[in-house]
Amino acid sequence: MIHTGGCHCGAVRFEVEAPEAIHATECNCSICSKSGFLHLIVPRSAFTLLSGQENLQTYSFNTGVAKHLFCKTCGIKSFYVPRSHPDGISVNVRCLDESTVRSVHIEPFDGVHWEQSMKASHRDGT
Fold first, then answer.
1. Where residue 62 sits, what CATH number does that domain have?
2. What is the three-class DSSP state of 44?
3. Which of the two residues, 112 and 46, has the higher pLDDT score?
4. 17 with 4: CB under 8 angstroms?
5. Which of the residues 10, 61, 90, 92 has an alpha carbon 20 to 30 A from that of 83?
6. What are phi and psi of 44, to 5 degrees?
7. pLDDT given at position 71
8. Which tens digits make up the pLDDT trace of 43-100?
9. Cβ distance 69 to 77 under 8 Å?
10. What is the largest CA-CA distance in the chain?
11. If we measure between CA atoms, which residue out of 57, 19, 21, 25 comes closest to residue 41?
12. H/E run at residue 23
């Protein structure tokens, strides 16, 4: 299924290939909890930026691996390059157009303790 989405003002638009029933992750780290980001992590090949490249501003902190991309006009982060998957894209499920989303299942992720949580998820095979 191809979903479309974007920022609040509409300057940034994208499409992403993902199931109709979405499995999202809700992280409790400082930036995700403050921005209300719900992660749908996909390979870069499943993501296409349709418009707004010139309207994106990058913010990076801590290790500098994650590239948080915000719309310069409205401030919304509708997708970014995550630290956990630097070769992928994390789309904010809350920024998807609702017409193609059948359901969303949300799994919690302890991003406050990121290193330990990542080790545990790799042990579990996720």
1. 2.170.150.70
2. helix
3. 46
4. no
5. 10
6. -55, -30
7. 98
8. 999 999 999 999 999 998 888 788 999 999 999 999 999 988 999 999 999 999 999 9
9. yes
10. 41
11. 25
12. strand 21-27
